[in-house]
Amino acid sequence: MDKEELLLQKRLIELSRIAYTRGIVTFSDLLNLNELNILHTTPKNQFLSGYETYGGYDLAERQMVAFLPDALSYNGAEGLRDPEMIRYPLEVLKISPQNQKFSEELSHRDYLGAVMNLGIERCKLGDIIIDGRAAFLFVRKEMTEYIRENLTRIRHTTIKTEIALDFPVSYEPGYEEIKGTVASVRLDTVLSLAYPLSRSKITSCIESARVFVNGKLITSNGYRLKEGDIISVRKMGRIVYDGILSETKKGRLMVKIRKY
């Protein structure tokens, strides 16, 4: 790990220590895939408390870590996976044009750039979901009012920002359902079904540390997937492996995936 990665690891371990010694829940900033991998690959014995991750909705890519004191980790731990129980300091902002008629079609980069131009660090921001001419931004709670007061225009479009109180935790972005046969449920074969790339390019993508399964970096082509695994490929998107549907007479597996 480089210096910044080591500092992040130390910070996460320290948050775990505070949760354990003070008996309180502590929270990290919003972590990207590489940072979540540092969390997941840090030896568990370095954390004095258990943890959960959440990014505002079930399929969020950028996520916050909640370190839980013993009283919460061991009593009703299943219930604690409910974000309402942990009370993550996250809010959802809906960003929409003041006048739909004169609004532009804005991209993810437009929304992100406008917010970061306010001087806000990326680690304070979660996913951005675009829905037509509006966007939903997940943000650390302490940034909410500052953004609402200062974000008034994106490119040439005058916008309004409001708190979205009823954003569904079960929200699922639009996806393409793909079914096909593969020789096995290895990571490389399933990715070949999702993306029209040669086997060598898929292999290069995996070996160059661009593929994450459930937030953990995977560099082995032969990694075997389990039903429900979320696979994120940097700069290419995400897929969910939904499992085996049937087996052909020749021994190939019919599988289903969702490509976002």
Short account of what is shown:
The chain is built from eight helices and 14 strands. It has 260 residues and is α+β, with helices and mostly antiparallel strands.
Describe this protein with a few key phrases.
alpha+beta; 260 residues; single chain; six-stranded antiparallel sheet; 32% strand
Derived structural class: alpha+beta
- Number of helical regions: 8
Low-confidence stretches: 74-80
Shape: globular
- The strands making up the biggest β-sheet line up spatially as 9-14-13-12-10-11
Kindly provide the radius of gyration, computed on alpha-carbon positions and rounded to a whole number of angstroms: 20 Å
Taken as a percent bin, the fraction of beta residues is 25-35%
Could you spell the SSE succession in H and E letters?
A: HEHEEHHEHEEHEEEHHEEEEE
Description of the molecule:
The chain is an alpha+beta fold. The chain contains eight helices and 14 strands. The protein has helices spanning 3-22, 33-41, 70-73, 83-86, 108-116, 144-150, 187-194, 199-207, and strands at residues 26-31, 50-54, 63-68, 90-97, 125-131, 134-140, 153-154, 157-163, 176-182, 211-213, 216-217, 230-233, 237-247, 253-259. It is globular.
Topology:
Elements: H1 3-22, E1 26-31, H2 33-41, E2 50-54, E3 63-68, H3 70-73, H4 83-86, E4 90-97, H5 108-116, E5 125-131, E6 134-140, H6 144-150, E7 153-154, E8 157-163, E9 176-182, H7 187-194, H8 199-207, E10 211-213, E11 216-217, E12 230-233, E13 237-247, E14 253-259
Antiparallel strand pairs: 1-3, 2-3, 4-6, 4-8, 5-6, 7-8, 9-14, 10-11, 10-12, 12-13, 13-14
